[in-house]
Amino acid sequence: MNSRTAVADAPPDTADLRRSTGRRLGWLLALTVGVVVMCAASIAFGTRDVSIGEIFSAFSGGTGVGEAVVATRIPRTVLGLLVGAALAMAGLTMQAVTRNPLADPGILGVSAGASLAVVTGIAFFGLSSSLGYMGFAVVGAAVAAVFVYTVGSLGRGGATPLKLALAGAATTAAFGSLSSAILLPRVDLLEVFRFWQIGGIGGATWDRVQIVLPVLAAGALVCILCSRGMNSLALGDDVATGLGEHVGRTRLIASAGAVVLVGAATAVAGPIAFVGLVIPHICRLLIGTDHRWLVPFSALGGAMLLVGADVVGRLVARPTEIEVGILTALIGAPFFIWIVRRQKVREL
């Protein structure tokens, strides 16, 4: 055995492992601080100026105009945290399950399927409760995910990243057109969902937060429990099977968690794209490819991105605001093009 082989076969240096863990903990602290800063900015800044005194007064039960404004921003901030974290974890899980660097709830048509289901439920079944919205959205997201994966698997090579991305784009366009066709003859519904279809968290209330929180928590728990299995899937199906991983079961359970996250998030905030694409890639650049770390990191990163985008949308167009779905698209579209050029999708 030569020296080069001996070095390759040597166990990882304990110091290297400590440095890796220390780096991850450092980035975890930085992301946590970033989330706290974005939350403070979301409460303090908006289309109307409020003073520091009004902010503290709102937390202590004040009833003035400024306090009322702050009181509406708090549930909006919490909902932004939940939706951003959910979309980022869902995107990460989809990328792991499909081994597709372009996977995202918006790109693969899952968000569009959830939106179409909600619009159909309201227009034809008199859907009116938030819980009903989430039920229809989860079913629609699941149907869209199965449809896109089936279409993307047709032909030679199976479900390649390029075929999945094209199938998702076509599905998104088709479902978006169907949603518009359902809404256009119904002026009352069109007015209600005009901004919802863009994607935003402006109508957040504590009731909506309380309803969506347990659903998102369940989906997040499934993704966390599947994180070790996602590491095995990244090695390929044959290697994962050799390591004792039940590939089909892991894919099914992890996909179910992602679908629940996307459906619930879409039901309360509309279809918000690219959060699940951008954040997982940034997190991999920072801490590596271990999904046991990537899942919580993606949750924090997605929460920070969505709340930050919402703050920017409130400030750049005062006294009106730009919906957060528009801003995430402006951020994510160039990132999508960069990934396509960098990863050489046809070779994946």
Automatic annotation (TrEMBL):
Sequence intervals crossing the membrane: 25-45, 74-94, 106-127, 133-152, 164-184, 252-282, 294-316, 322-340
InterPro entries according to UniProt: ABC_BtuC-like, ABC_transptr_permease_BtuC
CDD domains given in the database record: TM_ABC_iron-siderophores_like (cd06550)
Pfam families associated with the record: FecCD
Membrane topology of the entry: Multi-pass membrane protein
Compartment list: Cell membrane
Record's keyword annotation contains Glycoprotein: no
Keywords, in A-Z order: Cell membrane, Membrane, Transmembrane, Transmembrane helix, Transport
Family: Belongs to the binding-protein-dependent transport system permease family. FecCD subfamily.
PANTHER family linked to this entry: FE(3+) DICITRATE TRANSPORT SYSTEM PERMEASE PROTEIN FECC-RELATED (PTHR30472:SF1), FERRIC ENTEROBACTIN TRANSPORT SYSTEM PERMEASE PROTEIN (PTHR30472)
Protein name: Iron ABC transporter permease
Organism: Microbacterium algihabitans
